[in-house]
Design goal:
β6 and β7 form a beta hairpin. The protein is built from ten helices and nine strands. α3 runs antiparallel to α4. It is globular, with a radius of gyration of 17 Å. Helix content is about 30%, strand content about 20%. It is an alpha+beta fold.
C-alpha cells in the first residue's frame, strides 16, 4: 500500500487539465465541491495517483451533473448533491488493503438506470465484457453490459465532448430535460412499458414515467436480467 503522500505529491497532476476539459465542452456540466477528507480517504483506498483522471477526480471533485443531471458522475461530495464514489462502491469504513472493486468500479449512473463502470483487474463475472481497465456500460434498454472501448481518462473526455446526444439518441423523448429537473440525487425514472419492451422501442414518448429511488430502479433491472435470461449482471452500485 502506498502512502497518501505518494499518491498526491506527483509530477504533472491531472486535475488542472481535467478541470479545464470539464468546462471546455459543449455539454452542460455542473462541477460539485469536494469534501477534502473524503477525497483523500477514497484516493488512499483506491491506490491510484493524482496523475490519473480517476485519482484527480476523486481527490478534487465532489462529482458531476452532466446534461442537467441526466448523468451523475461520482466523486467525493461535500454535500448530498450526488452520492459519493465511496458510498456507491461500498468502500470499507477504514482503509482495507485487501479490498478490491471487483468486478469493477461503478463511476456513474444515468437517470434511466444505466451504469458506467471501470472493469477491475480480474472481472469475476464472465458475462461482463471488456478488458481490465476498460469502461463498460450497463444499458437499461437491453439489460446487457456493453464495452465502450476506452479507459477512464478517455471516457471523461468523451462525456463533455457532446457525444452523449448520439449515445442516448434512442433513449430520450421530447421534454426529458424538464422531467429530470425534479429528480433528487438518489432518484431515477421508471418507465412503463419498460425501456426493454417492444412498446417502448416503438414510441418512447408514449411511456409513462415516474420518479423512483435509484436503488429500486437498479434492483428491478438486475431482477429482470435474472428472470429473463438467467444471467446476473452483478453489482450495479449502492445508492
Amino acid at each position: 500500500m502506498r502512502e497518501l503522500s505518494q499518491l498526491i505529491d506527483v509530477e504533472e497532476p491531472a486535475w488542472p487539465e481535467l478541470r479545464e476539459a470539464l468546462g471546455a465542452g459543449p455539454v452542460s456540466v455542473e462541477v460539485l465541491p469536494p469534501d477534502d477528507d473524503l477525497g483523500r480517504a477514497s484516493l488512499l483506498q483506491l491506490q491510484v495517483t493524482a496523475r490519473s483522471y480517476l485519482g484527480a477526480f476523486v481527490l478534487h471533485c465532489g462529482g458531476l451533473l452532466v446534461d442537467g443531471g441526466w448523468l451523475r458522475v461520482f466523486g467525493s461530495p461535500a454535500d448530498g448533491a450526488v452520492p459519493s464514489l465511496a458510498r456507491v462502491n461500498q468502500f470499507p469504513g477504514a482503509l482495507d488493503p485487501a479490498w478490491q472493486a471487483d468486478p469493477g468500479l461503478v463511476v456513474a449512473h444515468d437517470v434511466l438506470g444505466g451504469v458506467f463502470a471501470l472493469n477491475g483487474g480480474a472481472p469475476a463475472n464472465a458475462d461482463r465484457p471488456g478488458a481490465a481497465g476498460e469502461m463498460v456500460y450497463f444499458a437499461p434498454d437491453s439489460l446487457r453490459w456493453e464495452t465502450l472501448g476506452v479507459g477512464h481518462s478517455a471516457w471523461m473526455a468523451w462525456l463533455v465532448s457532446g457525444a452523449l446526444d448520439e449515445f442516448y439518441a434512442d433513449l430520450r423523448w421530447p421534454g426529458w430535460k424538464d422531467e429530470i429537473q425534479a429528480l433528487h440525487s438518489v432518484q431515477g425514472l421508471s418507465l412503463f412499458p419498460p425501456l426493454w419492451s417492444a412498446e417502448a422501442r416503438r414510441d418512447l414518448s408514449a411511456t409513462s414515467r415516474r420518479a423512483v429511488p435509484m436503488a429500486e430502479l437498479l434492483g428491478v433491472a438486475r431482477d429482470s436480467c435474472r428472470q429473463f435470461d438467467g444471467v446476473d449482471p452483478g453489482f450495479l452500485g449502492a445508492v
